Amino acid sequence: MSDGIEIVEDLKIAVPDERIVPTLDPTKIVEVKATILGDDLKIFLRQETLVEIYEYSKTDVSHELGGVLIGTFHQWKGQIWIDIDGYIKAAHYVNTAASFKFTHDSFSAITREKERRFNDKPIVGWHHTHPGYGVFLSNYDRFIQDEFFDLPYHVALVVDPRANKFGFFQWKRGKIESCGFYFVRPKPQ
Q1: pTM score, whole prediction
Q2: Is there a domain that residue 123 lies in?
Q3: Were both Cys, which of 36, 66, 117, 153 would link to 100 (CB 3.0–4.6 Å)?
Q4: Are 25 and 187 in contact (CB under 8 A)?
C-alpha cells in the first residue's frame, strides 16, 4: 500500500483516510435516526442536503425522481463511514409512476455537474422516490444498487414524498439491507 491506494491483482482500490467520526466532533450536533447496529456503515447526512433532497422529491408526487449522493468516505478505528454533503438531481432519466432509470446521458450529466460543483468528490450512493409506495427497494432498485452502486460505502436513499417517509439501505455481508443514519448540523455559534 502506498499513497492511500492498495493494489490488488492490478486493481487499484482507494483506501479511506483515518478521520474522526462526526459523533465525536464537538462543533456538530449529531442525531441518530432509526436503529444503527455496531457493524452498520455509519452514514452522516447534512441537514441542508436532506432538505434539498426532500424538497426535490416533492416536486413530482406522480412519478419517481432520482439522483446521486455526493460525499466522502473515511474510516475511524477500522470502520468505514460516509459523509453525504451534496446531491445532484438526475437529468435525462426515464421514469414512470413506479420506476426510475438512469441513462447513459444521466451519468454523463452527473459527472459534469460533480466536477463543476463538488471538485470531483466521489458518488457515495443514489436517491430515488417511491411516491405513495413506501420505503423499500424493488427488485429493479436492487439491480441498480448491485450494478452501479456496488462499493462497500455506496448507499441508497428512498423517499416516499406522499407519506413523508424516507430510509437508507446499505451493503452488509454481501446483501442490501435497510439501516439507520446520523443527521448532522452545525452547533449554533
Answers
A1: 0.89
A2: yes
A3: 66
A4: no
